Amino acid sequence: MSPPAPAGPLAGVKVMDLTTVVLGPFATQILAGLGAQVVKVEAPGGDDMRRVGPMANPGMGALFLHANQGKRSLVLDLKHPRGREAAQRLAAASDVFITNVRPQALARLGLDEAALRPACPRLIHVLCCGFGPQGPYAGLPAYDDLIQGAAAVPWLVQRHGGGEPRYAPLTLADRVTGLHAVYAVTAALYERERSGLGQAVQVPMFEAMAQLVLGDHLAGLSFEPPRGEAGYARLLTPQRRPYRTSDGYLCVLIYNDKQWSAFLQLVGETPGLDARFASHEARAQHIDAVYAQVAAWMLQRSTAQWQAALAAADIPCQPLNRPEDLLHDPHLAAVGLVQRREHPSEGPQVVLGQPTGWSRSGEASVAPAPRLGEHSAQVLAELGYSAQEIAALCAAGASAQAPV
User: For this structure, is 174 an active site residue?
Assistant: First the structure.
């Protein structure tokens, strides 16, 4: 029987993934979830995230499992001439080459855009980097914490909550930039359909995060001369937080005039009596006092009482969930984001599906994250290597296969 036709909007697109840690693997995992055929090229020691626990078996850490579903693992030692030659063959057979290796190192490996372009005119060469190559920071090391700091995220956290500046407790810069990489790849594929040619694409972390932060917080600095300080007051007020109720917490956003009028009636206030609540502009001017007053009112009822009252008044609210609550959320289960599957080597797992849905192209069937070198022989054979050549590559240390 022939295998089922590939599904997903990127079915048939071949991606060579030379990325590590979070940013690149997160991006290519999304591409794999959209149907792309992703080959993850790993050094003999594997991606560093393989060793970040918890894990059931060595080399299969939880973060790695989530960021590398749907990929095949090919081990290549790029310091070995035969390993580099195999990588160049793979690039020539791919539609997209995505990497977060520094440009200088890529050039030494013969995997930079200039080296690959003559033999690969249709290749889309995507470089995920810390800083754009045209600026003075080009080539500097970049990690999520460093980019969060450079883009003012800890300053925002300090301004909002007081105390010491802190990083957001997420790999925020990595994942935001990874999403930029995904749309850059899909846009480049679309452009190639019109031009017939590939191109080089840079996806820098600092610029991606600076755009994110300044989009909300440029504020008065949007004008010359400035018409105030940086910072969106509603986001920065220390009162912007889940509201404490008489027995817990609840996330509530009373936003437009209709919702405020309904809320004021709920708490027994006459709409329009307090000028601070009268309009969107007035509330923005007095946002600290407005949110503080709401916090005082919220203490008067239980979480369940507020949820019922707010729902009846058509005022948006959501519970304050913990990560474990999301695993049992009925909506996430119904849409398939949270799934439970059996990994061939790691046993039962909670895995994450795609947040997008497609009416015609269908959803890709995503394989579990691979063991290191699990698909080395398979991918090398597809590149034209014979069984004897594959054995020789492994014997020379240029490649490796996962034990059966």
Answer: yes
